[in-house]
Amino acid sequence: MKKILSIVFLGLIITSNSMAYEEANYEVVKKNSIYEIRKYSDRLVIETSMSNEGSSFRKLFNYISGNNDKNEEIKMTTPVTQVEKKGNMTMQFYLPSRFNKENIPVPSNSDIKILNIKEGYYAVIKYSGRASDKNFTKHKSILENELKKDDISILSAPIKATYDGPFTLPMNRRNEAMFEINIKNKGEI
After folding, report:
1. pLDDT digits (tens, 9 = 90+) for 141-164
2. For residue 47, how many other CB atoms are within 10 A of its CB?
3. Helical (H) or strand (E) element with 135
4. β-strand partners of 39
5. pTM of the entire predicted model
6. How many helices (H) and strands (E) does the chain have?
7. Which of these CATH numbers, 3.20.80.10, 3.40.50.170, 3.40.190.10, 3.40.50.360, describes 2-51+75-100+111-188?
């Protein structure tokens, strides 16, 4: 019963309006009818390998709930991202902008790593609906094909970004497929 209540509580937390959450800082530098190019600032994330999605989310959620060396609760941010690294899927939570390498609490769980993602340019396609692998693969392929047509070099594996909880109606969900890209001539943007 305690486990069911925890899952329901977690669902209620992540289903409230995503506008209440701090979002990773970026500037839209170019937009067309299919995708947009964003310039992201440096940002801190916590990351863990995905043995299964539920346990990865739970590990990261436990960290922001105070399972860290300062027992500090940290506000949830968006998006939650998933990306393949060295053959393993990882899940990431972005940390609020008030944190830096000096004041970030150390994870109590050794499976959680703190990383700084350097600023860069990302091509992003937005879509609604379920955050299923099938829906993500469809939109990732559309984005990849458009970038190839536009002669834009892809630097990363595809990144799956989700902004809403599982109890949000599918048509109201914000999902994104992203790639880090190389901007050859920044003056062309």
Report:
1. 999 999 999 999 999 999 999 999
2. 21
3. helix 133-149
4. 27, 121
5. 0.85
6. 3, 12
7. 3.20.80.10
